[in-house]
Amino acid sequence: MKNNNKVKYIFILPLLAISFLMSGCYESAWESHVSNETYSKYNLSEAISQKPELSTFYKILKKTGYDQFLSSANSFTVFAPKNEAWASIDTTNSAQLVKIVSNLIVYKSYFTDSPELYKSLKSINGKNIFYDPTTKTFNGAGIDTTKNNCNLRAANGVIQLTDKVIELRNNIWEYLSTKTTNSQFQYINSLSQKTMDLTKSIAIGVDQNGKTKYDTVWANVNNFLKSYPIDNEDSLYTYIVLENDAFSSLYTKYKPYFQMPSLAKTDSATRFNVCQDFVFKGEIDITKFDTLTNVDGIKVPLSNIVITDSYITSNGRVYVVSGLNIPLKNKIKPIKIEGENFNRASDANYVFTRYKLWASGQRDIAFAGGETQADTLYRRTTGVKDSIVSKTYFINSNLVANIANFFIEYKARVNSANYDVYYVAYDDNPTDADPTYRNYGVYKVIQKMFVSMPGGLPLSFGITDNTRGVANNYLGEGRCFVGQGRAGVRELTKLKQMNLVATTQLVDFTTPITTPNSDVMTVTNTGTLTMWLCNTARSNAASRQGLLFLDYILLVPRITE
Description:
Elements: H1 15-25, H2 29-34, H3 44-49, H4 55-64, H5 66-69, E1 76-81, H6 94-102, E2 105-107, E3 121-122, E4 128-129, E5 131-132, E6 137-138, E7 152-154, E8 157-162, H7 172-176, H8 183-190, E9 192-196, E10 202-206, E11 212-215, E12 218-222, H9 223-227, E13 237-242, H10 244-254, H11 263-276, E14 279-281, E15 291-293, E16 299-301, E17 307-313, E18 316-321, H12 328-331, E19 335-338, E20 344-345, E21 351-355, E22 363-367, E23 370-375, E24 389-394, E25 407-414, E26 418-424, E27 444-452, E28 460-463, E29 466-471, E30 479-486, E31 493-494, E32 496-499, E33 520-522, E34 527-534, E35 548-550, E36 552-557
Parallel strand pairs: 1-8, 13-18
Antiparallel strand pairs: 1-2, 3-4, 5-6, 7-8, 9-12, 10-11, 13-14, 15-16, 17-18, 19-36, 20-25, 21-22, 22-35, 23-24, 25-34, 26-31, 26-33, 26-36, 27-30, 27-34, 28-29, 30-32
């Protein structure tokens, strides 16, 4: 069975690696630092010129100008390929030689007794060099462990002779850029835009309209690479690239859930989501896992995938696969909004964030309002039986908001999908619940929720004959979602659509909605949803418009797959 737990990185140095290399170099760490004094009076460039087996490398250093660079006062380690290592390389291509040589030099001196040598090193060109403990090589090149060729100490660093040229590897984005016909590359590349780099552009005058003129330096900005920096040499990622048929298949499945106001925006949102789902943190051998969780927390199944290409990059790994399916239930997940994370309220001074061990995140909220309820369930057993008794319920009787349709606003990023709406609204005040009904009974926790859809007009106040009536609700002025519960009972409550009384927007309990799917919230466009949790469900009397409680809201998408 493959391991589905934590990703293990490969940069673990076995102690045997050091002992193996040291056994061929010197008898002790001290000896490695004091031997070959012949070269200690030379800088690195001069020391390389003294070694006949590095004559080809020295010529290349002079050709590329790096002989001067290695004569500077900085401390470097040079992975110096011996003459035979250059046999398969075009030494007439000066531009390519510059890239290769810059990949062979790292800052600081690393001797073979240093554990730091066997971790990832960064070349002066910004590329990473990785040690492979299995093959005992650095990007495919092995250090010459013979005594006279190992740890050659120069005045400004150390030379490590190698049997091959250390491989100059592309990063993930550079590799993907070679796949010019691939749908993933084409989409990500289409997001690149040239923008003015204000930090580097220089003001050179003023035009006839009084605007500053610049000697403009342009920077390439790509929003995908900003969010998922697979081009960054300072972080390790694994990226999966789908072949075009597989990309098209997943695109078609995702598209209904990323609808936008225009076809072009829908297409871009869908493609972006397909591309982002295959970014994983760290360098991972995906063949060892049945499932991996990507950087956004989505589980990606890897069983039975067919890998058609793979490449170890300078910042991780990349795989090309012929097919990979992500179940919609993994992608379009329930959305939980904590009560204490509200965006704003009619007056935040009346909203209390309460510390409760039982609450999600150990916090919930309560609105300091009041409500008088009268019901035949609320009766006294002393005196007249079954008499209707009224009781006023408060959070804090000294602080009562006199605000009809007091709202607490929440926002959530949603997909174009059908959602079931739930919340936990727990009135745990002991004075609000008398399950024996000996004195007054149980407070009915009835709360309204108005919704403004992504791209729609924002929720606001002002309807016909009611300045505190909520407008721009996606169900109109005469209907909203309503949750009904009881004080003293902590439970997940499903909100359902209910009619509202004209003008007052009190809940109309006399005309229930019986049409199919009346308990569903239909989101037509992907984007930010706005919800107002409101009181004033049963009464609009002054200072008695109702309480509000909320632990969390839960939006559950109806996914059939």
